[in-house]
Design goal:
This protein is an alpha+beta fold and about 350 residues long. It is built from eleven helices and twelve strands. Helix 7 runs antiparallel to helix 8 and helix 10 runs antiparallel to helix 11.
Length: about 350
């Protein structure tokens, strides 16, 4: 009979938390807490006594004996006498104050921002962040409530939504062009962390670290930027043609024992491509940048069959080195010569 009655009372209370757990309500199953019971609060934890939804006493890490002396708020709420020694009921909630790190975030949908150089852009980004509980009262009221437990996994969808809004705010007000973001990524990460921290505060959380690991454009926009970069890298078409010829010679030298015929074919192909590029870009006024009055070889370029030239220019359109408008203009000019 004594053992049966003993099981009706709780005399040891502790929590061995698992990774990713933020809060746990002790399941008493109708049993009462024995006066003088032992409460163990481990490092990085805090134990809260809650009476009818109101926060009462808080216990920091350590070993505690529960009586009226160290439960002053609960004693007052329950109107206990100083020498009260009977079993009692109360909700006990453990919280983990450990930093929850290594969490990943990413923009599920592109974030639209106004770039000072490129205009309206739709950006995607991803990275990592960490947080911990900062305000006990707010966290218990806004998150825990009457739940039996709270985990990081349960909160992540809500946190990621707040992060996406913070990113739009930070990027929109940064004033840093997209092409310069890579050089100021650390400052950008800190700017976004501040905005994320403000959003997390509504749940009693603090964002301790935030890292932007990558920011990217939609594939079609990135392709246009790459094309523009390629054209700028080409620069002087004369130099580009010489580079192509050298590449062709090296490739031919490695095939068929480096025969003269193979080398000659490579040089001819490179020269033909350079000539077609020069004629095609000349129609839009770009040819003067690299060719000048001397042409590719330093003398007047030989007259070429217009139909063959059109075919070469069409290949440039296919490669993306020449726009359709430039091709159409040059094509009309060449066809007018043979009518």
């Amino acid at each position: 009979m004594f053992d049966f009655l003993k099981k009706q009372f709780i005399d040891v209370i502790d929590w061995i938390e698992q990774p990713g757990e933020l809060a746990w309500r002790v399941p008493f199953d109708g049993r009462e807490i024995q006066t003088g019971a032992q409460l163990t609060v481990r490092e990085g934890q805090v134990a809260l006594f809650v009476n009818e939804g109101n926060l009462a006493d808080t216990f920091e890490p350590g070993l505690h004996r529960l009586d009226t002396a160290n439960l002053p708020i609960l004693t007052s709420l329950m109107n206990w006498d100083k020498g009260f020694a009977s079993p009692f009921k109360s909700d006990v909630v453990f919280l983990s104050f450990k930093e929850q790190h290594g969490l990943k975030w990413g923009t599920g949908q592109p974030v639209t921002v106004r770039d000072s150089e490129l205009g309206a852009l739709r950006l995607r980004a991803f990275g990592s962040y960490s947080f911990r509980i900062a305000a006990v009262d707010t966290f218990v009221e806004r998150v825990v409530g009457t739940l039996e437990s709270v985990s990081v996994a349960a909160l992540e969808p809500q946190l990621r939504a707040a992060i996406q809004t913070a990113i739009a705010t930070a990027l929109g007000g940064s004033g840093v062009p997209f092409l310069d973001l890579a050089t100021s990524q650390q400052a950008l990460s800190e700017r976004i962390r501040v905005e994320v921290d403000k959003a997390f505060a509504q749940w009693g959380l603090a964002c301790l670290s935030f890292y932007v690991e990558s920011i990217s454009l939609p594939e079609d926009v990135q392709a246009h930027l790459d094309k523009g970069s390629s054209m700028r890298v080409l620069g002087d078409l004369g130099n580009y043609t010489r580079f192509q010829a050298a590449e062709a010679i090296e490739a031919a030298a490695g095939q068929d024992g480096g025969s003269i015929a193979g080398i000659g074919a490579g040089v001819a192909a490179a020269t033909a491509l350079g000539g077609a590029m020069a004629q095609g870009l000349g129609a839009s006024g770009l040819g003067s940048q690299g060719l000048g009055a001397q042409g590719l070889s330093g003398s007047t370029a030989p007259v070429e069959d217009p139909i063959a030239t059109i075919e070469k220019l069409h290949k440039l359109v296919t490669l993306g080195a020449l726009s359709q408008e430039e091709f159409d203009a040059k094509k009309g000019e060449l066809l007018s010569r043979i009518r």
